[in-house]
Amino acid sequence: MAFSLVAKQAVKKLKEIACIQLLEPIMKIDINIPSEHIGSVIGDLNRRRGQVIEQNNEPQRAVLKAQAPLAEMFGYIGCLRALTAGRGQFTMSFSHYEAVPKMLVTNIIGDKK
């Protein structure tokens, strides 16, 4: 028990000194949807901390290229299908790692300063 307490204090002190960052995987997302649903899909991506990188509008369809954290993308297919009446499709692949926003880090590790 004493060792556990000392180890926690040492890690906390090391975190302050070393400026440790928590990283999360960012996914590249290609979304193919009917044009009339662009607004609701972009709004949902924003809610998921996503960023639209490129938007190509065709007569009846729209193709969005975006990036979003993997943690926010679980269950996305069901949400996309609900937003587009079952006509939306997407593909997702790993892009890179990014630092987790500080507000979320405190929620993840439970560190209250």
Automatic annotation (TrEMBL):
Listed CDD domains: EFG_mtEFG_C
Taxonomy, superkingdom: Bacteria
Protein's UniProt keywords contain Aminoacyl-tRNA synthetase: no
The protein's name in its UniProt record: Elongation factor EFG domain-containing protein
Keyword set, alphabetical order: Cytoplasm, Elongation factor, GTP-binding, Nucleotide-binding, Protein biosynthesis
GO biological process, one term: ribosome disassembly
SMART domains the record matches: EFG_C
Pfam families per record: EFG_C (PF00679)
GO molecular function terms listed in the Swiss-Prot or TrEMBL record: GTP binding; ribonucleoside triphosphate phosphatase activity; translation elongation factor activity
InterPro entries found in the cross-reference section: EFG_III/V, EFG_V, EFG_V-like, Ribsml_uS5_D2-typ_fold_subgr
Function, in words: Catalyzes the GTP-dependent ribosomal translocation step during translation elongation. During this step, the ribosome changes from the pre-translocational (PRE) to the post-translocational (POST) state as the newly formed A-site-bound peptidyl-tRNA and P-site-bound deacylated tRNA move to the P and E sites, respectively. Catalyzes the coordinated movement of the two tRNA molecules, the mRNA and conformational changes in the ribosome.
UniProt domain Elongation factor EFG: residue ranges: 21-108
